[in-house]
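Appendix C: a fully annotated inverse folding record. The material below is reproduced so that readers can follow the format used throughout the book. The structure is listed first as tokens, followed by the designed sequence.
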């Protein structure tokens, strides 16, 4: 994912050195149409066309050591770099999607107890409002429900 067409040209200039790169997503519209480059709007529109059953099928294929996210450092103390996090490093391990539409998702999140020795929080939500927060004690832990508006 790249911020603008200047960054895209840098990547495409070195495309032959990136054999595993399948496509490039650029936040603004590409300056000209290129096969491997889509805008963020095009990516979102493509995702909206994927049926809920296909989303669930793909989610079922995710394995614990698969890449979950990449966090980029700012580079204030050295060269900027991307830090890879696997699914294993996430506190929430499993999600059950009860309802899914283009404008709504209802899901249950299952995780593990937070262990400061193993869980290092490196991402945060800067601002959020929440609605309908409930926390209920269950026989093997707690169940929390919240709707976030991030």
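Designed amino acids, in order:
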């Amino acid at each position: 994912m790249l911020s603008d067409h200047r960054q895209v040209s840098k990547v495409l200039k070195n495309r032959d050195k990136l054999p595993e790169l399948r496509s490039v997503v650029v936040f603004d519209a590409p300056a000209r149409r290129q096969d491997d480059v889509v805008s963020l709007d095009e990516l979102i529109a493509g995702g909206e066309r994927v049926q809920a059953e296909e989303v669930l099928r793909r989610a079922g294929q995710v394995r614990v050591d698969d890449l979950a996210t990449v966090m980029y450092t700012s580079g204030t103390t050295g060269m900027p770099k991307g830090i890879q996090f696997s699914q294993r490093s996430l506190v929430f391990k499993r999600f059950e999607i009860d309802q899914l539409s283009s404008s709504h998702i209802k899901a249950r999140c299952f995780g593990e107890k937070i262990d400061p020795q193993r869980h290092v929080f490196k991402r945060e939500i800067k601002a959020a409002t929440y609605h309908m927060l409930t926390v209920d004690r269950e026989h093997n832990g707690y169940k929390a429900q919240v709707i976030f508006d991030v």
